[in-house]
Design a protein that fits this description.
The structure holds two protein chains of two kinds. By secondary structure, chain A is of the alpha/beta class. Helices cover 29% and strands 11% of the residues of chain A. Chain B is elongated, with a radius of gyration of 28 Å. Classes of the chains: A alpha/beta, B mainly alpha.
Chain lengths: 447, 160
């Protein structure tokens, strides 16, 4: 066979290109497959949200308000110390930062410093430069959708959870409106302080229970009536969809939570008495999900520090409660078989707060703080863009006891970091716009 | 000739003085219903809850109850799960208007037809009518409560 050099090179080049491209075209028709090695099998992303200023957190301007997370014994400023609620002793043997890496100067780089914007950036890994429609799902795919779509085999919704402290726009963050993703890849969403409430119990707590024979008949009849209708309600309008066995598990889980609530198990679950706030309850219910389902990806938020718009001292007090709750969450993870020593937890506020106070003065003479950094990134008070980030996890995966004092990392790093930890970052198509893991400063937390 | 003239006048008089008939125009009774094939719109949350309540209790849901249900509805992401739970709770509330089993056995075909019109706003087709009639007659577990639950948690009930 005659083959000149040019033809040989061309043929060899095509063969090589085919060899490179072939692994990405799967028999299933999917273009990409998850190929990366996982660093851990579980990620918990704790949005220490509501707007936390570095001055009060890592810079400890009023003393160490976060002793469960941060090293340091600086006492709380005497003028506000008396207003702080008494909290239980730390569930951890040492502050959480010692179990990982603390980044003290992280940026919320662009866009309005609003709560929904900040949450959207956190769960999509992409900045939004405009005020968002709070009734709409994000345009860019969320980390839940990326996780579910780009893992091979694909993951069930039961593996991913978005646990929100409040309603408003937040239920919309479990999936995007992106045409390639959407509800089919969304996370299970729960706002437990609304669902597991007296109102919730009144309308959902006493369901009719069918016997096993009735259930069998119902299953057949449901199949019959749905086959006779030419549309499916689950095509997007029904939110995230769990298959029937998983839906049954969810029903059972909800019933169990109502039973526990009726039995008084959530009256004072952490021994914090009247200090227990909504943030703490939200984390408490996230722990119930962790214990029941051991999700691979769970995102939970706190927001009570946002009282800072009106009352600085209450803001400081709630910062302490969020600190206790985050430590409690980590303690639960480490006491949950299947997640202990196989989980990375990332803690980051969605944005900070202004340097200069507004006109509200509390009973202790402190000025309240908004979070209104101008979007030109230059003018006015830009302090609301300054945040911290803590990454904790197993020895050998996360660098222990590391503190990074220089400016490193930004809000949009979190999603690619999660993707890398769970082994699917290389499967996310470039045109989606998620930052490349290798250009993320937060990777300095890992070996 | 004169006779012919009288006869002619008589004929004219009889035919031209005929009393007018009173016609009453009426429409034929028509059953307004919707084919399952043309239900293209998904009920809103409020519509779904309000209609389900009215279908089961024969009265309007109170605003306070609707607000409670609306809040818990949005507090869970899988709407099929939460809707299932809403219906199951409705089915356990006193005051539920549901036919008793004996009357169903009395005229199963009429019960199926009435139930389809109640929940789907249409008559069952022949196959549906036959299937349900057989299920109700042959399977003791297919009670009116079961049929209500199945129809109310179906895809078609979520559309209009």
């Amino acid at each position: 066979m005659n083959m000149n050099r040019r033809k040989f090179l061309k043929t060899a080049g095509l063969a090589a290109a085919g060899a490179i491209a072939a692994p990405y075209i799967l028999p299933s028709g999917r273009l990409f497959a998850a190929t990366g090695a996982r660093k851990v099998n579980h990620v918990v992303f704790c949005l220490y949200a509501g707007g936390v200023r570095n001055l009060e957190s890592v810079q400890m301007m009023d003393g160490n308000l976060m002793p469960n997370l941060l090293n340091g014994t600086a006492p709380i400023s005497p003028d506000i110390a008396g207003a702080m609620d008494i909290l239980p002793a730390s569930p951890l043997s040492q502050p959480l930062q010692n179990y990982g890496t603390l980044f003290k100067q992280v940026k919320y780089r662009r866009g309005p410093t609003g709560h929904y914007n900040g949450h959207t950036v956190a769960v999509t890994g992409q900045y939004v430069d405009i005020d968002l429609n709070i009734r709409a799902h994000p345009e860019n795919p969320t980390v839940f959708e990326l996780y579910r779509k780009h893992n091979s085999p694909q993951k069930a919704a039961l593996n991913s959870w978005w646990v929100a402290q409040n309603l408003g726009p937040y239920p919309a963050l479990n999936f995007s409106s992106h045409e390639e993703y959407g509800a089919a890849y969304g996370a299970n969403f729960i706002a437990p302080t609304w669902l597991i409430s007296q109102d919730g119990y009144d309308v959902l707590g006493n369901p009719k229970v069918f016997g096993s024979n009735e259930k069998a008949a119902i299953s057949n009849l449901q199949q019959f009536v749905n086959q006779n209708f030419n549309k499916s309600y689950t095509d997007g309008s029904a939110g995230v969809v769990n298959d029937n066995p998983d839906a049954a598990l969810l029903q059972s889980f909800i019933s169990d939570l109502y039973t526990k609530a009726q039995g008084g198990q959530f009256l004072n679950p952490w021994g914090a008495g009247p200090a227990m706030n909504n943030d703490m309850y939200n984390i408490c219910f996230a722990e119930e999900i962790i214990k029941q389902f051991k999700p691979e990806l769970l995102v939970v938020n706190m927001q009570d520090v946002d009282v800072g718009h009106f009352n600085y001292t209450s803001y400081a007090n709630n910062l302490r409660k969020a600190d206790f709750a985050a430590a409690h969450l980590w303690n639960t993870i480490q006491n949950t078989p299947g997640m202990a020593n196989d989980t990375v937890m990332i803690i980051i506020p969605e944005h900070g707060r202004n340097q200069f106070g507004n006109t509200s003065v509390d009973a202790y003479g402190r000025y309240a703080l908004d979070h209104t950094a101008p979007v030109d990134l230059i003018s006015g008070d830009q302090m609301a863009r300054d945040i911290f980030c803590m990454v904790v996890g197993p020895v050998g995966v996360v660098k222990q006891g590391q503190v990074i004092n220089t400016a490193m990392g930004e809000s949009s790093d979190v999603v690619p970091v999660i993707a890398n930890l769970l082994g699917f970052d290389s499967s996310i198509p470039g045109y989606i716009g998620v930052k490349d893991y290798n250009s993320c400063d937060l990777k300095a937390a890992f070996y | 000739m004169k006779h012919y003239l009288y006869l002619f006048l008589l004929v004219v008089a009889v035919s031209s003085c005929k009393k007018e008939s009173d016609y009453i125009y009426e429409t034929t009774p028509v059953t307004v219903q919707q084919s399952g094939a043309v239900k293209n719109n998904v009920k809103s949350t409020t519509e779904f809850i309000s209609i389900a309540y009215a279908d089961l209790f024969g009265s309007n849901i109170s605003q306070a109850q609707l607000t409670k249900l609306g809040n818990v509805y949005v507090s869970f992401g899988d709407k099929k799960v939460v809707e299932d739970r809403i219906i199951l709770n409705f089915l356990n509330v006193p005051g539920l208007q549901i036919p008793s089993t004996p009357s169903v056995n009395g005229d199963t075909t009429a019960f199926v037809s009435k139930t389809y019109k109640k929940f789907y706003n249409r008559e069952p087709n022949a196959f549906e009518a036959y299937y349900w009639k057989e299920q109700i007659r042959l399977n003791a577990n297919v009670s009116p409560l079961v049929m209500y639950y199945v129809l109310m948690t179906s895809d078609e009930y979520r559309f209009y």
